[in-house]
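#struct-help
A.M.: can someone run this one for me? Single chain, 231 residues.
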Amino acid sequence: MGKDVIIACDFSSAEDTLNFLDKFEGKKPFVKIGMELFYAGGPEMVKTLKARGHKIFLDLKLHDIPNTVKKAMSVLAKLDVDMTNVHASGACKMMEAAVEGLRSNGSDAVLIAVTQLTSTSEEQLHEDLLVGSSMEETVAHYAANAKKSGLNGVVCSPLESPVVHANCGADFVTVTPGVRLAGDAVGDQQRVTTPAKAKELGSDYIVVGRSITAAEDPVAAYERCVAEFVD
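D.P.: on it. C-alpha cells below:
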C-alpha cells in the first residue's frame, strides 16, 4: 500500500472546507472528515468531496455495543468512503461487528481501529485510564486484537508504528496522526513526530492538520509534507 499524506479538514462548516480545498488547484489531496465537519456538513459533505475527486478518511471513531456499530457501519458503507474507523477499546466482538456491517453493503474501505489517542500521555494511560501496561504494550495488544478481528490496520502514533508492524506484519496499515512540521506547535498532542521521522518509523499514512490548515501557505506546507514523507 502506497504512502500518502491525509489532510485533517477540521473545519466547522462546508463553506470553510471548500474554500480551503479550492486553494489546491489541480491537486486532489486525501482528506480526513472528522466529527466536527461531519456533524456540521453531514453525509452531503462526504458526497461533495467524493464528487470533487478526493479520497476520504471518515474519522468518526465508532465505539458502542456490537449491534449498534454493525448497523452504523452498514449505513456508512453507502457513502463510499476510502477509510473509516472504530475504537479498539470496544473489544473484538465490536470490531468484528464493524467489519460485518461495513462489508455487508459491499464497501472495500480500509477499516482501522484507534489504539490510543495521540493526545494521551503515558501518565494519563496509567492514572486516568488505569491501564497498567506501557503505552507500547497497550498499542501492540490493541493492534493484535484489531488484526484478529479482521480489520486492515490501526491508528497510532508514528512512534508505535514499528511495534505494530513487528507484531502484525508489514501489510497491516498504520495511520498516524500526531505529525507536525519541524518548528510547529504541538498543540494538544503528546506523542508527536515530523513527516520525515514518521517515514523513517514506517508509518503508512500520516494525518496532518494544523501544520497545513493553519499555515500561511497551506499548499506549500502540504507539498513539504509530501516531499518529506512520500517522495
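A.M.: thanks! The mean pLDDT is 94.
D.P.: also worth noting: The longest helix spans residues 35-51.
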